[in-house]
Design brief:
By secondary structure, the protein is of the alpha+beta class. The chain is built from 15 helices and 21 strands. The chain folds into 2 domains: 266 residues, no CATH class; 132 residues, Conserved hypothetical protein from pyrococcus furiosus pfu- 392566-001, domain 2 (2-Layer Sandwich), CATH 3.30.1760. α4 runs parallel beside α5 and α5 crosses α8.
Amino acid sequence: MADIQAFRAFRYDLGRVGSLGDVIAPPYDVIDPALQEALYQRSPYNVIRLILGRQSSADNDNDNRYTRSAAVLRDWQRDGILVQDSARSLYVYHQEFEVEGKTHTRKGFMARCRLERFGEGKIYAHEQTMSGPKEDRLKLTRATAMNLSQIFGLYPDDTGEVQALLDAAVGRALPLQATDHLGVVSRLWPVSDQQLVSKVTGMMGPKPIFIADGHHRYETACKYLDERKQAGEVTSPDAAANFVLMMLVAMQDPGLAILPTHRLISGIGAVTAEQLRSRLATHFDVEIVGKGEQAARDCWELIEAHGEQDILGFGTVADGVWQTARFRSPELMAELAGDHGPAWRSLAVSILHVVVLDKLFGGQPQCRYVHLLREATDAVQARDCQVAALVPPATMSHVEEIAGNLEKMPAKSTYFYPKLLSGLVFHSLKTV
């Protein structure tokens, strides 16, 4: 059973730091140097100093970005900048955002979740991880003994009863509120009613949890727990290091947005629409949509209206033509990717990489990744690639089925927008 618990978060004392919007930040892995510097300038208490401190050419084993983050954290706790809540709480978290002209609100709650190995319990991964980010986050966790950002977890709830209980609990209470650099509005309410907390955590027990974002940090938390156990520091099942901070959102939440991840393909030469069509025709039914930006919009509308994973869109920079390509050779995917299950093989992104890029183009192309149609059309207009490939987004059912079969989806298959803010709550790995 998934073990979800309330906890005593450390949070900013807004009487000391001012606006919550001045001290929050997006996750470390989407912060470029310019944004890092802007966040440093925004407030001396911005969480950037903890999650992604500046590096120096003079860094050494005793003085580096990780040790400096730990020193800042100690100072903030000592000076009352960060204060631990007196009551164990769940933290209701709403995000209001806009995608392609439509406004959405994603609802969930933050809690601590007992760690378990992927494939050994009720928590499932759906993406591959890389060693570099895990080592970076492990060094930071060792130094700070704190979950500074939350894992993004998804759980099934057909009736929405869990979130309904929490929404009723916060009612008309005024939230803590912050707006990030993308215009996403985040609202936070602590819920410490122990009767309600027990009901919610009890309802969560039988549910599986699928990691949407934060795979590297989850595996880092498991590694950190192993190290602390080996050091003899984890002497109780209730020790804080047994848990990780997690944001939990129902798979059926109306505000859960999975954006497509389109590919900007380079390294294949100046391919025209006709040349691309001749390569695709063996395994795809190809239809010309038109030329220019309007044709790109029409192409994407056709993909959305089709509603399946067997269709791709292509814009060739050499002539500005857009066309759709519907895959008609599933037996080829079974032949080329037989070590994967049917759900994995049916994904549009799998078809694109296995059939188009690997087989038809010899596996040599390079890809950049964008999420909005405008980004793809801008790249075509600026001639920043040779071909733009429009890919329908994977759905929650794909995530659930593939992860439930203990498979990992291809890289850049899902993009859950928006990212969760860092700086709203912190989970100590020392105190409960």
